[in-house]
Amino acid sequence: MTATATELAGLRELADDLFGSITEPHLHSQQTALPYSAESWRLLGESGLSLLTTPEASGGSGAGITEAAIVLDRSGYHALPAPLAESDLLAAWLLVAAGADVPDGPLTAASTMLSADADLVVLEHVPWAQVASAVVVTGPGFVGVADLAECSVTPVGDLAGEYRGNVTVPASALQTLPTADLRPEFRIRGAWARSAQICGATERALDLATVHVGERHQFGRPIGKFQAVQELIARSAGYLVAAKAAASHAATAVDEHGFGGPEAQVAVAVAKIQAGRAAVAVSRDVHQAHGAIGFTLDHQLRHFTTRMLAWNRDFDGPSVWERELASVFLASGVSVWEFATTH
């Protein structure tokens, strides 16, 4: 059943209230990372947001991509320190596709080129590996799940200081099930999720910059009155609008055709490209608008710009997606205008 506008507005309000209550007390703490909390994860589960798109029969809320887009966007806006995308769109989806049960607790997921009978499966830069209860692995023709307590996890961190790690999974810990090769769709799902999260974080960074240039005075007037500063804000707003439009189009394409179709490949590629451009350009401009204070541990801006840049690297950066999009266009045999208006 398609959610009504009122229901979607209510979901957005719920996400803003809940995510804000989790992160706002910590945004001005002089720590690089925002703390992960098991109690916060419990609240996310009770609200139905931790497994939002997972079928009800598997313990989820059974919501659609439109709802997921709102929640992921708002998680970026509030710098939510929790593996929502990893648990729901990736790990739980893989388990449901393999016909397996979805375990309780926060989950993470990763892709590997190794076969199911490998003695060791080494996974690099796994998001939330230090706090998740299990990792779900997709490889060539299999899905596997391992209790992270039985694995070796080496913390590696990222630009935002979140809980990433290199995970070594022994064969004895990995329970595998045969499936089709789900890695291509896994990558598309991850790229779309990061695009939505980048949009939310970009919006928050721009909001902070807009407030700052209105409040900060220099030479007797707000710095937002100076043309150079206005250009920084206006340019950032343009990048944000383009990224949000691309992410919204991708959500519509996925909702209509699924993640596995060619329509999703093109739409998600555009969304990841636009989100990546926004992440780099807006991070630069809003920090310039803030001046030195924006780079310090005293200011909350860093929680959003560092996440934008870290997420930009996940599931391949814009340059990789640009090459893939160009390949799809060249293979289509149509004009640029026809390609752009039919995809």
Quick recap:
This protein has 343 residues and is an alpha+beta fold. The chain has 10 helices and 9 strands. The protein has helices at 5-23, 38-46, 65-77, 84-97, 183-215, 227-257, 262-290, 301-313, 318-332, 336-342, and strands at 107-111, 120-126, 134-139, 142-147, 152-155, 165-170, 175-178, 217-218, 221-222.
Please provide a written account of the structure.
The protein is α+β, with helices and mostly antiparallel strands. The chain contains 10 helices and 9 strands. The protein has a 4-stranded mixed sheet with strand order 1-3-4-7, covered by helices on one side. The longest helix has 33 residues. It is globular and about 70 Å long. The two termini are 25 Å apart. The mean pLDDT is 93.
Number of helices: 10
What's the end-to-end separation, in Å? 25 Å
Secondary structure: helix percent: 40-55%
Shape: globular
Strand order of the biggest β-sheet: 1-3-4-7
How much is the radius of gyration in Å?
20 Å
Strand content: 5-15%
- Poorly predicted regions are none
Structural class comes to alpha+beta
Please give the largest β-sheet: 4 strands, mixed
Order of helices and strands: HHHHEEEEEEEHEEHHHHH
